[in-house]
Amino acid sequence: MSEDSLPPPPLSAPRVLVVVGDPDRRENLQAVLLAEGYEVPALAGEEGLVDEVRSLPPDLILLETRLPDASGYELCGDLRMLEATHLVPIILLVPTYDEMSVVRGLLCGADDVVGPQTPLAELKARVRVQFRRRRMREIVGWARQQRETLRRAGLIDPVTRIPNRRAADEALAEALLLSLPTTLVLTDLDRFTDINQTHGEAAGDQVLRAVGQALRPLAPPGGAVARTGCDEFVVVLPGVAGDESLAAGERFRKCVAGLSLKSPEGLRSLTASVGVAVWNGAGSAPHPDAMMQAAELALYDAKEAGLNRVVVWPMESVMAS
Hints:
By secondary structure, the protein is an alpha/beta fold. The protein folds into 2 domains: 3-152, Response regulator (Rossmann fold, 3-Layer(aba) Sandwich); 165-320, Reverse transcriptase/Diguanylate cyclase domain (Alpha-Beta Plaits), CATH 3.30.70.270. Helix content is 46%, strand content 18%. It is built from 11 helices and 12 strands. The protein has helices at residues 23-35, 49-55, 72-81, 99-107, 120-153, 165-177, 192-199, 201-215, 243-257, 288-304, 315-320; strands spanning 16-19, 42-43, 60-64, 90-93, 112-114, 182-189, 224-227, 232-238, 260-263, 266-269, 272-279, 310-314. The strands form 3 sheets. It has a 5-stranded parallel sheet, sandwiched between helices. Helix 7 packs across helix 8 (201-215). The longest helix has 34 residues, at 120-153. The two termini are 54 Å apart.
């Protein structure tokens, strides 16, 4: 199991930054938190605060609102704007625990607000609660990242490392949903079975990877190049229609024809047959499955006509029949 697949480890010795003006109270808070197993750097005010949090970001900040050189409320807002501390829990220490102080503290970005009469046992519990919430956020963020990683992995063909049929289906469905004129190019390698039988599956995989990498740069933004079958590749071209569709099919056919397989017998040229389905954007958009089927039928015609050629099927004629 890779380290990336494991949740982030919990903090071994959380770092709590205490920003309190009164030296006796500051030292008292440091002693209490040190006894809890935390690292507890401390500052008397705004001076040096930014340098401190940027050089070694704390895991939590205890911030007094009444400082000798600044307002803790304003500092709390400033800390929320810094990349190093915009997600760090902040507990504000207010001189008077009333509704206005609590509201102001929460609105300036604090995670919690405590007053001067708060028992130390309660303060320690509030600190632990903030660390527990932070841990929960870390786990949730890790879980979302894992889900996205798995989703992306589910869209990648393991042999060619380019998108798979599912990714192509999503790109095609999105283009048609937006009513964009769309061309679907289905490219099938000619006599690929002979390559596997003569040179082995490793050579066949080498050919598939070469074709995938050659076709991949040809997809426009919002489009997709994907491997959809054993030796089939599909290209989704949003915004492409009319004469451009045939030109696109020829471009992909020539792209494959420019490749070759190295074998003990020498170089073996590759060719591909190409079926193109095109919707010009008129009327209701076709169903993605219907467009894929039209491309498959066009590909079948190209194979029947003698291989290494392009056949185009306009969706308007398909939908009218």
